[in-house]
Amino acid sequence: MKIRKVLVAFALVSILAVAAMAAEIAGKWKSELPARDGTPQVTIYTFKVDGDKLTGTISGRQSDTAISEGKISGDEISFVVVRSMGGEERKIQYKGKVVGDELKLSITFGDNPPREIVAKRVKE
User: Fold this and answer.
1) Counting beta carbons within 10 angstroms of the beta carbon of residue 16, is it exposed (0 to 12), middle (13 to 18) or buried (19 or more)?
2) Residue 37: its pLDDT value, please?
3) Which residue, among 108, 104, 97, 96, has the nearest Cα to 120 in the 3D structure?
4) Could you read off the pLDDT of 3-41 as tens digits, one per residue?
């Protein structure tokens, strides 16, 4: 009986730890990449967390775009952004990992090789 109580307590602590880690993703994140002309291209990621579900928006020069298919597993996230390009809807896939106040993202679009970026937490 003692072992069962210990296992139940361990399971509860583990669940709470995962939920706490997921909550660390919520909020605003900012990345800056040089555009073709060398000027910085700023993107703001605003994330909301509900259990293992991730929602929110990406804001940049193409206005706000909702994210879809958002998932969280510990400190790893994934989501999709659908943009209209040339009259067609295109999916851009994002996968990332939170490391402290940095979000390391890999962005895949079509058959292009993944693009790696780092977003930093916006402290408000």
Assistant:
1) exposed
2) 87
3) 104
4) 766 444 554 444 444 444 445 899 999 999 888 888 888
Largest CA-CA distance found in the chain, in angstroms, rounded: 68
Q: Which domains does the chain have, with CATH numbers?
A: 2-121 (2.40.128)
C-alpha 43/C-alpha 62 separation (Å) is 10
The whole-chain average pLDDT of the chain stands at 84
